[in-house]
Design a protein that fits this description.
By secondary structure, the chain is an all-alpha fold. The chain folds into 2 domains: about 230 residues, Citrate Synthase, domain 1 (Orthogonal Bundle); about 100 residues, Cytochrome P450-Terp, domain 2 (Cytochrome p450-Terp, domain 2). The protein is built from 16 helices and 3 strands. The longest helix has 24 residues. The two termini are about 35 Å apart. Bound molecules: carboxymethyl coenzyme *A.
Amino acid sequence: MAEPQGVQRGLQDVVALESRICFIDGRQGRLIYQGYDIRDLAARSTFEEVAYLLWYGRLPNATQLEELKGRFGTVRALPPPLVDQIDRMPIEAHPMDILRTAVSALAGFEPEETRPGASSIGGAQRLTAVLPSILAQFHRRRKGLPLVRARPELSQAAYLLYAVLDREPTELETRAMDVALILHADHELNASTFAARVTASTLSDLYSAVTSAVGTLKGPLHGGANERVMELLDEIGTPERVEEIVHGKLSRHERIMGFGHRVYKVEDPRATILREWSRKVGENKGDLHYYELLRRVEEVVHREKGLYPNVDLYSGSVYSLLGFPADLFTPIFAASRVAGWTAHVLEEYQDLRLIRPTAKYVGAVDLPYVPIGQRS
Ligand code: CMC
């Protein structure tokens, strides 16, 4: 029997597959989707263009873009029995639990879309269109708001704002949301995308892969960090308390959420862009409280630990200013990353190989079997 050699804990630096979708240059702090720099995409494109880019490998022309927007608009509504199912969940539940359950349940309503292979592009678009509706349905119910209208004329960003917040968003709010969706849409083999690809690599269906991904994104070391950043800011309260609270956490060897990254050795370029949007939206709303606290936290964490911010540091401050409650931050991340998850699943189906690593066994062997009556 061949013995496994070294163990790469956390699969750190292991190259598991080839992909054309996303490139991270962790030393230069660059992020590329299908050849395009994230800074250009954030400055000039929309989430719909980016989703198309991730799925098809090229930017859409005007007709293709209109077709995709039309498709999002027409498949946005939830099947009524799924609405009932969401309405039966406890209102105290975390929205990520609702999302995971609803994505899984959706497969049952769309069996022809759940088969692996070419038809999955329809499922990818359907899932991307529908995630905001799931969040909105749950949130509106807990707020006692009526059923949301699908509003096919709205972009994904505007619809997400309208559906959850129950008001018409401004142009600046819609652009801020759009940029956040663009920035979160993909990130190479992050944990949730890897989970999606592992599931797809067994020839399982797209909905199962996305269900795995939602569960993986939920963790605070991954997408759940954005919600924890807001908890930290609320604990800090005022700028004078930043030093004391951050020092206390570091001396207890606690992690400061929104800092550090497995791949980036410099600042995450998404953090750079979101910092700017946090300031911009803060100025627009006349509220720079979170922005100023975050700047201070950044200074202290960098001085003490040499760590740089990641995408999760500033995103919550933007969402909060837009009016979202903190427990919707990670679900918003999912509503964007679903484009990347599904692009990776489609790529996996094109060049499928079962993902199945090995473990180095460190347990016992050849133990004598003890009959139950003789065990202590
Ligand atoms: N706060 C305090 N110390 C940290 C942090 C942090 N946020 N991140 C890393 N470190 C320290 C860690 O304690 C360790 O120190 P030492 O060598 O003295 O034990 C060292 O830096 C290396 O950490 P690591 O855990 O080996 O590094 P990793 O590559 O496994 O961690 C990470 C990456 C993202 C899990 C980690 O930086 C972290 O826990 N960050 C906080 C959670 C967070 O913000 N997650 C969002 C990640 S980006 C978006 C996403 O993927 O969703």
